[in-house]
Amino acid sequence: MINPKRDLGLLNGPVLLFGGPYSNLAATEAMQAEAQRLQIPPERIICTGDVIAYCAEPAETLELIRRWGIHVVQGNCEQSLGADAPDCGCGFDSGSSCSLLSIEWYRYASQRVSPEQQYWMAELPGQLDFQLGSLRFSVVHGSTQSINEFIFPGTAQALKQARLSATAADAVVGGHCGIPFGERLDTGYWLNAGVIGMPANDGTQDGWYLLLKPDNDDISAHWHRLPYQAQQSRQRMQQADLCDAYAQALITGLWPSVDILPHRDRQLSGQPLQIKPLELAKQSSMN
Fold this sequence. Notes:
Oligomer: single chain
Distance between the termini: 27 Å
Mean pLDDT: 94
Strand content: 15-25%
Radius of gyration: 17 Å
Number of domains: 1
CATH class: Alpha Beta
Order of helices and strands: EEHEHEHHHEEHEEEEEHHHE
CATH superfamily: Metallo-dependent phosphatases
Number of strands: 12
Strand order of the largest sheet: 1-5-6-7-9-8
CATH topology: Purple Acid Phosphatase, chain A, domain 2
Shape: globular
């Protein structure tokens, strides 16, 4: 079940989007500093969810996000933690490496969040809509149909089109999959802002964020790397005696398992991402 959506109305000026802080306080601090450098106010910043996950500072990361005052879409981790669910609800296949690895960090995080923090997570919107220029955007965590549906670069375009067509938007911005990308569909666009708390399985330590820049009625989408002190986050995980597989991933830039990746995306493991800007324009065929 996805929580009700919230409409932010017309936004004026660049919009910054990022996902997956993942309990990585150092990365979240770096993202906040970058937003301040870019002079983008909290009302034009959106997180696509999963504030809490793999790393060692769940409560601290969540409090930073709350104090910052930005918009947050509910991710499956917020949904599960907010409901005292027994697992993260990530959508991993039962018995897979990803599913087994999630047990430890979810237990660790659930023991460290307060009831008040749980309530905040439970009340987050499941979708955020806004208008920028002449285009309508819907921001979700997984997809427009399911909070934990994985939509990767290699996911079939027909599925992306179907999920977009279920909305009144010209473009969907998703999270959850951990890999930033942008794709022009037959009608409209599917974008993923990327995440900041874990690398994009591209052999680098960087996180990623997305900047939408209005140019009259059209919009340009630019993806940017986010360098931060990954070694600091790794040390925090080691001090907490958390799973070394994810602690190592912060340094190697490689996921401990690629079970969930489509074949095309799996073949690109370890290759540094280079994402070209994407120009978004209103399409006359769209309603």
